[in-house]
């Protein structure tokens, strides 16, 4: 099993299955997290996660809770595969003679994994956030007391004709991730898809530094003996606990990333020039508590997502599929 787990195709399969199952289950909560994080004081459309989900279903239908899910379902396979494979790669190179790693080396391996995954994570999050937040902007435009055409913030022309017509009466026109990506690439080049890269690094690197060592040590507690693997339920619980802990720990970074990557702004919502500008404006106008917006949602999203990922990974689902189907040619 240890040798098989070095197979990149197996990691792709494990990460893909886990990501698709996990995203399908928890995506509505992730949508609520994005919308709650983007709300400003005095302009709250949603009071809580449940309130957000209920209002989303009422105004956009059941499928409205899955706005942007196609982007995640498409890119979650390479993202999870890169994260898990990179962590294994760095752990193997940091270990000496097969001996266990110190906590510091485990953190270094997690840091390397976090830096590698942003290649996929940044454009995925960039496209997903635009689609997820469109419903909040539409709901905000339906409040005439809080919206005025003279107060609309001038935003990047990208997406403006898709989401906003700069009038209160018209709702934003639905667009696809492909349209958004084409417009971003056409107007800003490849860097348009990587807006918020720094904020994504600030979020994902600390997340991996916390998650991977914590998971490894929690999972180790469930092993009957040093030479045997922990039970699948223990791997699942370890992934859930480590994932939710890391998610809450880096939630302030996630709030900053979400604000920076939201190209379209609602009434009187400020634009930010960078990470420092975003942090200072949030602190000054909304207070420290704003950095914890959506923390509960994020914990509920990440916990099962990484729990499922670790079960797939440690159960060797990918290895089993490769050994029992024509796909075994990929690992040859």
Could you explain how this protein is built, in words?
- The protein has 332 residues and is an all-alpha fold.
- Helix content is 67%, strand content 0%.
- The protein is built from 13 helices and no strands.
- The protein has helices at residues 8-38, 49-60, 69-94, 103-141, 160-163, 177-188, 190-193, 197-221, 232-249, 251-261, 275-286, 295-315, 317-324.
- α1 packs antiparallel against α12 (295-315).
- The longest helix is centred in the middle third of the chain and has 39 residues, at 103-141.
- It is globular, with a radius of gyration of 21 Å.
- One of its GO terms (biological process) is malate-aspartate shuttle.
Q: What string gives the helices and strands in order? A: HHHHHHHHHHHHH
Question: Approximately what portion of the residues adopt beta-strand conformation?
Answer: under 5%
Low-confidence stretches: 1-5, 145-172
- Rg on CA atoms, Å: 21 Å
Number of strands: 0
Category by helix and strand content: mainly alpha
Q: Compute the separation of the termini in Å.
A: 16 Å
Portion in helices: 55-70%
In round numbers, the mean pLDDT is 82
**What's the number of helices?**
13
Please describe the biggest sheet, giving its number of strands, its sense, and whether it closes into a barrel.
none
Judging from the principal axes of the Cα atoms, what is the shape?
A: globular
Protein name: Mitochondrial glutamate carrier 1
Family: Belongs to the mitochondrial carrier (TC 2.A.29) family.
Transmembrane segments: 12-32
Function: Mitochondrial glutamate/H(+) symporter. Responsible for the transport of glutamate from the cytosol into the mitochondrial matrix with the concomitant import of a proton. Plays a role in the control of glucose-stimulated insulin secretion.
